[in-house]
Amino acid sequence: MGRINIEKLNKTYANRRRDPRSDDDSSLRQGDRVTVLFDIDLNILDGEMVCFLGPSGCGKSTLLRIIAGFESPSDGRVQINDKPVKGPSADHIFVFQHSGLFPWMTVFENVGLGLRHLKNRRDRHEQVSEFIEMVELDGFEQHYPRQLSGGMQRRAELARALAVNPDIMIMDEPFSGLDFLTHMKMREEVVNMHSFIQKTILLVTHNIDDALIMGDRIVILGDSPTRVIMDRTLDFPRPRDFEKSSELSMLRSELFLMMGVNYAV
Amino acid sequence: MSTKVRKKGEKKSYAYLMPFLGFFALLLVWDVLARFSGWSREVFPGPVVVLVSMGELLADGTLIRHTVASLFRVTVGFYLAAGLGIPMGIALGMMKTARSLINPLIQFLRPISPLAWIPLAMLWFGIGDPPAIFLIFLSSFFSLVVSTTIAVDGVNPTYFHVAANFNFSRAEIIARLVIPAIIPEVVTALRMTVTISWLVVVAAEMIAVQSGLGFLILDSRNALRMDYVMDGMIAIGLVGLTLDFLMRQLGDLEAARWRKMTH
């Protein structure tokens, strides 16, 4: 189960600015604190793949880090399966934007991190191998992350996250820094993986096409302080192609316009 | 164009000879200076005289005995410093409150030269190995604590998030995250400090003990045997070279190498 309820979530940071802000942006002021997230309400269903879009620095990552338990909300509450989030846990695994693989461990050891509870060595070995095979990294078990390409590192991290069998996977720009083709392939793999394991996936991206192709639902964060400015369920069949579906391509233009791009090609 | 394409890392055959060439040049300059300085061989012995006397010292075992005595002190003092300093550095790196308590003390004690401790060391530990070992310990301990603390501080915070995500216990955080993450820096720190302790042992032996290369040098000076003084210096240099070589090997271990090539 990976149901998430977010109610009236606020996040403010202490303002490090020395000089007082001018009065006209009073919406940003709360004493000497800056509001990053303002009054966020979201209900995410079990098994949903939700893509978060928004301009950079709008607090997408902050929202995800709060859900993951790395940061705590200033106000409001975040519940996973009706229980408040108290901190990081293996039930909701965060996949980091830049590799979170431990560089001093081999691929096998990294993937094995989520299976440490298995005391039987053979069981553990078998399961780790299974997850490595799932992301097609068999043959690279004894490689260190630095010996893998960027795409392979992401796949290894994916395998490590899957091995824990979490209720929720949280991905912060999982495709950033990959070359075009690797990006496309990884996107496809995440979609296939999601339809296979049916876990809740939260994914932050800058890429509107990623969100349209992958998401069961798109949430757009914007304005400052950040609030939800669009929340839309996509019930288009997969594989999706916005060149063939006019409805999808209209939505795409709408999204681009919303993010301030007038002529998206 | 007849330039050959070489693989990276492949050295020209004579590249290995370069360090020896340096030593050979040093010997040559030394010899020329000794011959034409106008000083007697008692005051400025040339390389031949020194090598012959080194043969004597090697033959009667004196040089080996003193070298072993010095190495023993360095080893014990250095292991003590590493055994206490690295865990303490890890603790300070991980506990911010402890650090704000202890760090100022360390920064206060660190710039005090170990040699300044000699009078106290002799008073407290008497004559013999203990005061020398104490001085070597002091020379390495503080810098190892500081380097280790800084190394722990520099560990990518993402890794701690990952550890929390995978429900690491405190012991696991130390054993599987902090220690492997800081090994490269700690090895570099060890390489630096072993050289410093080797510097300090010679100084310590000139005062507190009756053996070791420092004692050999001081004793030979009293006997006006400058060739023996130079033998002692050469032995110190050679051991220092070997220690550095061994520490470099340590840096090439798989555990210390992960940082190389990671972007």
* Major sheet summary line of chain A: 6 strands, mixed
| Total helical elements of chain B | 11
Unreliable segments of chain A (pLDDT under 50, ≥5 consecutive)? 26-30
| N/C terminus separation of chain B | 36 Å
Number of helices of chain A: 7
What percent of residues of chain A adopt helix (DSSP H or I)? 25-40%
> What global shape of chain B is seen?
globular
Helix fraction of chain B, binned, reads: over 70%
Computed CA radius of gyration of chain B, to the nearest angstrom? 23 Å
- Span between termini of chain A: 39 Å
Radius of gyration of chain A using CA atoms only: 20 Å
Biggest pleated-sheet summary of chain B? none
Order of helices and strands of chain B: HHHHHHHHHHH
Description:
The complex is a heterodimer of chains A (about 260) and B (about 260). Chain A is built from seven helices and eleven strands. Chain A has about 260 residues and is an alpha/beta fold. Helices cover about 30% and strands about 25% of the residues of chain A. Chain B has a single domain, classed as MetI-like fold (Orthogonal Bundle). The mean pLDDT of chain B is about 90. The interface between A and B is medium-sized, with 23 and 20 residues.
What is this entry, summarized?
The complex is a heterodimer of chains A (265) and B (263). Chain A has 265 residues and is α/β, with parallel strands linked by helices.
